[in-house]
Amino acid sequence: MTIGFDSYEFWWWPYLFILLIGWLPTDFWRVLGVLFAGNIDENSKMLVFVRAIATALVAAVISKLILFPAGSLAETPPELRIVAAAAGFAMFNLAGKRIVVGILVAETILIGGAWWLGVF
């Protein structure tokens, strides 16, 4: 039997599934990172390499969401998604690298553009 999100009919099962499959494995590695991070030099070649890999993975996920989206996001034109991401990134930089500002600007443009085009 394969255990998945829809395996059981109990109301609490999706929450337990998210806890077991999503949160616990992630937190395990976070705890290990906190325990061992004090002994690692921030400028070591290994840490610079790990940071580069992490940044590349985030960039890949964002690129996939923009260029090859799924669900409702796929109904929006690619130009709108690209403009929203570019404007969000520009405002992130102009606002002193405040992540919340970049996210709010990008979401506002994306949702407003989708509404204006009649997608939502």
Write the layout of secondary structure elements.
Blueprint: H1 13-37, H2 45-67, H3 78-94, H4 99-117
Average pLDDT works out at 89
Shape: flat
> How many distinct helices?
4
Q: How many individual domains? A: 2
- Integer-rounded radius of gyration: 19 Å
Into which percentage range does the β-strand content fall? under 5%
By DSSP, the count of extended strands is: 0
Low-confidence stretches: none
Instruction: Give me the strand/helix succession.
Output: HHHH
- Helix/strand-derived class? mainly alpha
Architecture overview:
- With 120 residues, this protein is mainly α.
- The mean pLDDT is 89.
- It has helices at residues 13-37, 45-67, 78-94, 99-117.
- The chain is flat and about 50 Å long.
- The longest helix is centred in the N-terminal third of the chain and has 25 residues, at 13-37.
- The protein starts with 12 loop residues before the first helix and ends with a helix.
- It is built from 4 helices and no strands.
- Helix 3 (78-94) packs antiparallel against helix 4 (99-117).
Task: Describe the structure concisely for a colleague.
The chain contains four helices and no strands. By secondary structure, the chain is an all-alpha fold. The protein has two domains: 11-40; 42-117, no CATH class.
